[in-house]
Amino acid sequence: MSDVTIVGSGASAVHFAQTALERGLSVTMVDVGRPRPAPVRPDDSFAELKRTLDDPWRYFLGARFEGVLFPGGKGEYYGFPPHKEYIFESIEPYSVESRGFEPLASFARGGLAEAWTGGSFPFNDAELEDFPFGYDDIGPFYDLVAQRIGIVGANDDLARFMPVHRNLDAPLDLDRHSTALLERYGRVRERMNADGAFFGRSRAAVLREDRDGRKGCDYLGRCLWTCPRESLYTPAMTLERLIAKPNFRYLDQRFVTHFRFDGDRRVRAIATLDLTTNKVEELDVERLVLAAGTLPTSKIFLDSIHRANGERPRLTGLMDNRQTLVPFANLKLLGAKWDPDTYQYHQLAFGLAGRTPKEYVHALVTTLKSALIHPIALSAPLDLATSLWITKNVHGALGLVNVNLHDTRRAESYVELSGDVERTKLVARYEPAPTELADRKRALSRIKRALWQLGCFVPPGMAHVRPMGASVHYSGTLPMSKTRAPLTVDRDCRSHDFENLWLADGATFPFLPAKNLTFTLMANASRIASRIA
Ligand SMILES: Cc1cc2nc3c(=O)[nH]c(=O)nc-3n(C[C@H](O)[C@H](O)[C@H](O)COP(=O)(O)OP(=O)(O)OC[C@H]3O[C@@H](n4cnc5c(N)ncnc54)[C@H](O)[C@@H]3O)c2cc1C
Ligand code: SF4
After folding, report:
1. pTM (predicted TM-score)
2. Does ligand 2 lie within 6 Å of residue 204's CB atom?
3. Helix (H) or strand (E) segment spanning residue 257
4. Contact partners, residue 357, CB within 8 Å, separation at least 6
5. CB atoms < 10 A from the CB of 71, how many?
6. Is the Cβ–Cβ distance between 325 and 464 less than 8 Å?
């Protein structure tokens, strides 16, 4: 039996595992772990691929055009390339029903962050106020994770919101549009700052230089289609390196249904469904770490209690960041050329000071480059031909801001079980905070004002409020608590209900700042692995 058994191979799980191994503990990782298809022509740029692939339509758009966002869709401004579908494919034994919430889960090797855009932002002391530790405690683990995965960024005006941790590498080269925005900010900075709006380089988990077998970004422009140089970090890269280590065992194709515990509430074993044979097996555990993502982790936890004694507790406090997508056009760049062979994701960000530091508004700016039939054109209140003509001629001037609001734990937002014991469903309910609508409107008007000061125009009626659940920053269902209470965990994310159970994903967050949480998931998982007794 290994010292530690971890469920999942996502961002949280792999960093927990790496730190546990570095401490000399043996680790078994149990995972569904759908594999990713091999990279295609790794040295070709986006433009070259269109020429060199035998069937570029299939690669970019899919055999059934499933990668295209058509008019009349749900108003989303991102489509996923067909070969990334495996990341979001659900599996038969996992069932969720929801209201007010569109839940996603991943059963891929590496989890949801196989599709992420790499935004990596440390929480500051104000944002950690409800956590049972402060920046001094987690800071060394931000430094450690940054060293492991490579994070680029700058010590600029956004540092007032985001601590500058160690191992922050110099940012990537900017594309033409991003350069123009940053130059303009230099001229209007004082006016914007007086309004509480700050602008600067985003932070992202991407390599500028070659490191640990990964190659530095060569500006191939294929980020959305999976970086073939491994410059953009994903957890599957860490997993691959862990698998080569002697004290690590990876059991994939196994769906964990529940854990079994004894009368002293000590976890004895996990039950797994082997997806290749459909057989249920038990695996004895010494210490169990759930890192299956907030919703699957909550389901395993609830199913384990339900199977043991028939109870169905409700886990309150489900959180996610409300996101609004705001397309804009830079008036100075209308008609300008655009270069598809550039880094595709956000390189810039706005930080808006909140009424209190916890109400900080976080907004990532992506200038638009290689996107195909651009959904913005299709959403414009014009006929298709005019929209496409406009897109072609203003492509170099277009951009998108993704505005994120913080969230708090509330009793009205929760998960619980329904259904028969052998086939339970996770029920997820989400009620927005009473202030959300007003907060969202205020943030939107501040972003529009800031964009205007940068010389950019937001076409009326095109801001899109994403459904709750779309940001996939789920958290809060089994929170860290300074006091011992049922359905909570302690400072080290050790369960207050089961003595040898740890939770290493977003389920444990007592507050959700506006900043994307994955860097903190990885740092916190490493922190608790360094303290596991
Ligand atoms: C398009 C997109 C863009 C994003 N961009 C960003 C970003 O820029 N910055 C950011 O901070 N975050 C971003 N995110 C969010 C980020 O991906 C998640 O926060 C992160 O992946 C969560 O990691 P996790 O390890 O906690 O869980 P997951 O990634 O959900 O991993 C769960 C793992 O558990 C396994 N698993 C689940 N259930 C079971 C079970 N019952 N039995 C066995 N194995 C199981 C799965 O196979 C998987 O390996 C983005 C997400 C998406 C979808
Ligand atoms: S531009 Fe994107 S796809 Fe190309 S090397 Fe850089 S991170 Fe990878």
Report:
1. 0.93
2. no
3. strand 254-261
4. 124, 126, 127
5. 12
6. yes
